[in-house]
Amino acid sequence: MAKKYEEYYESPYKMDGIVDRVYMTKADETITVDPETGQYFTMRKVSMDRQTLHDEMAYTKLFKENALKLMKLPHPALKIVLYAMSTVKPLQEVVVLNSADVCLMCDIAPSTFYNNLYDLLDRKIISRKLGSSIEFWFDPNIFFNGKRIKVYKK
């Protein structure tokens, strides 16, 4: 019989490494103040053609400080984490791990999926989301898609 895992309405994870710091302008930036609101803005000089390089490939950040946790995972559990990293939506703290989809994409059996899912739960890399059997909170200190500051809760 499977171990009972606690379910969470909100993410049980707190984001590490987010601190207040003084904004430093770059060499090509100027700070200006909106006279109506008093709000500060930066202005940056751009080249005359206004073209800039942009990388259009999708990515998810892997935070080095906690990568060791992933290196210690069994191979199938690591596949599940890689699946989660590749499917997590931007600025979300929840990932969908539908067993049929994960098994197909990771080429693993359902029993392997569940055994390794329980391992990820035991290691606190993911946690169950209350009210769902396929949605899981993941630790945003291990990986995240987007800027964590936008979803940071003090």
Q: How would you describe this structure in keywords?
A:
single chain, 4 helices
Describe what you observe in this structure.
This protein has 154 residues and is of the alpha+beta class. It has a domain at 60-151: Winged helix-like DNA-binding domain superfamily/Winged helix DNA-binding domain (Arc Repressor Mutant, subunit A), CATH 1.10.10. It has helices spanning 67-71, 75-87, 99-106, 110-122, and strands at 7-8, 29-33, 40-44, 61-62, 94-96, 126-129, 135-138, 143-144. The strands form 3 sheets. A 4-stranded mixed beta sheet has the order 1-6-7-5. The chain has a two-stranded antiparallel ribbon with strand order 2-3. Strand 2 (29-33) and strand 3 (40-44) form a beta hairpin. It is elongated, with a radius of gyration of 20 Å. The chain starts with 6 loop residues before the first strand and ends in a 10-residue tail after the last strand. 18% of the residues are buried.
SSE inventory with pairings:
Blueprint: E1 7-8, E2 29-33, E3 40-44, E4 61-62, H1 67-71, H2 75-87, E5 94-96, H3 99-106, H4 110-122, E6 126-129, E7 135-138, E8 143-144
Parallel strand pairs: 1-6
Antiparallel strand pairs: 2-3, 4-8, 5-7, 6-7
